[in-house]
User: Fold this.
Amino acid sequence: MEKNNLHTKVIDATKWSTISEVAAKLVSPVTNMILARILIPEAFGVIATVTMIISFAEMFTDSGFQKYLVQHDFKDEDEKYTSANIAFWTNFIIAIFLWGVIFYFREPIATLVGNPGLGNVIAISCLQLPLTSFSSIQMALYRRSFDFKTLFTVRIIEVLIPFFVTIPLALLGLGYWSLIVGTLTIQLSNAILLTIKSKWKPKFYYNFTVLRDMFSFSIWSLIDAISIWSTSWADAFIIGKVLNKHYLGLYKNSTAMVNSLMSIITASTVPVLFSTLSRLQDDDAKFNDTFLKFQRVVSILVFPLGVGVFLYSDLATKILLGNKWTEASGVIGIWALTSSITIVFCHYCSEVYRAKGKPKLSFLAQVLHLVVLVPTCIISSKYGFWALVYTRSWIRLQFVIVHLIIMKFAIGFPVVNIFKNVYPTGVSAIAMGILGHFLQQVSQGMLWDFVSIIICAIFYFGILFLFPKMRKEIISLLKKALPKKYCNMLIRVLKI
Assistant:
């Protein structure tokens, strides 16, 4: 009965998480498309610098407590809420302290990241640190209880705010300030809504003994987060220092757009996967099956998406960013292709480590990647922007190898099964890519691009349906995603 209940929760959580992220990721690119046509790349370069600093500080305000609250097995509700209370006050105090440090050293920090004179911009932007500390603990508790329906409501309000705040301010000529004010408004909205709707409310209580026990797990999650931040921002830091704000904005906005597109799938599955694996950490068979199930489903969509954006990067750039961003086409194409490989083969491995209570392994993976990534980026930057872009994109494959080795020898996961698991989707995506390349030689123009994309999509799923296991998987997904009447109609059309 308990297993069936967990299965039901997982399905329901995945449904709401997917609806939330799909809605958000469909709206967010629209917002970005509008802003990209109003603002110049330099404005996004400034925001990239600010985001780099804020994301670094936010790791310390969370202190790894979110992962602890989701992963840990508590004896009862009182113990869980006690830990949540201690985590909240720890986060809030650290957030206030860090904002004070950033405010005092704002000009030296701005100079360090390659944007002298932007100290006040950084200080004001970092006001979101204490706001974030209000919402992070509530989010962890919602995810632990698989209550993604509530998070859906908050997420939808979050993605609509730019239409009422950011875009109007950008039209009034406020430049990067429109993005900063919009972000602060989002964080304030999240803090208020999550606090009001949460069953748990902060109380004035603290216990250093409990904090010590929590910190023994959280310290490694924090260290892991720092290593992930370093991996994510090393390239941006180097571009900001070696090149200029134009190239930084071009690079970060292009990769962010691709990440936003890919995260329609990944952002909806990662929190559910982690919560599910955490509950199954002592059952290796079900643990492995669940991981492979998630990976297989994700590969059905991610592989063709990556190959498709790579092939049609010019079209994607025109649609997503506009004519001012034609340079971004090369960045978007190669980043999408390598992202699809990275997501399928190593994106979810860190969730395995954390769910098993071994965040040290995720840190190890990040370090082993960083020792290759940083010198590679530094050397390639000496040969110009495009050398760095292509080198940075393909060096991610080294990260894939690192994760697979750790999964094999530290977790004991049958790595061969990972490749067997996604073999059908990989073959289908490659075949689709070859067809797409030849279709592009037939004719030019936007209309033919759209026609050939439809042909490629039909061809991809046609090949995928030749594999019985994938055929069943797709039918299962259709039944869960569509109303029964429409699902049966679609299945009849496909002659399944």
